[in-house]
Specification:
mainly beta, Immunoglobulin-like, 7-stranded mixed β-sheet, 7 strands
């Protein structure tokens, strides 16, 4: 699965079934609305990856998409994509949370109470 933001330029790094340098089509299909967005792209190879730059416009946040890379009508790569604007950095333990800025836990280290 890949994580992308809702807007801006995106570059997918994939390991496809076959490496094709040139014109390809990227299709994103929303799992919730079943709306398909197709974008043409020109692929390049970087090491063991195929780089696919694309601009999809504004996508729906917190939605899952099915990504397909097409060479003509042949599907050469398929993946699931999750769209979020949260910053995610696993090295600093900053993970995705569905309750971001909605639920705040109170850390209390004392269970003391006063009896009068």
């Amino acid at each position: 699965m890949q994580l992308i933001q809702t807007s801006g330029n995106k570059t997918f790094q994939v390991i496809p079934r076959q490496f094709v340098v040139g014109a390809l089509t990227l299709k994103l299909r929303s799992e919730s609305t079943n709306v398909v967005v197709s974008v043409g792209t020109t692929s390049t190879i970087s090491g063991n990856y195929l780089l696919l730059p694309a601009i999809f416009g504004t996508l729906v946040e917190n939605d899952f998409f099915i990504l397909e890379v097409l060479n003509g009508t042949e599907v050469i790569y398929k993946d699931k994509v999750f769209c979020t604007n949260q910053t995610i950095n696993q090295t600093s333990n900053d993970y995705y949370t569905i309750n971001k800025n909605q639920y705040v836990s109170e850390d209390s280290d004392s269970n003391e109470y006063i009896i009068i």
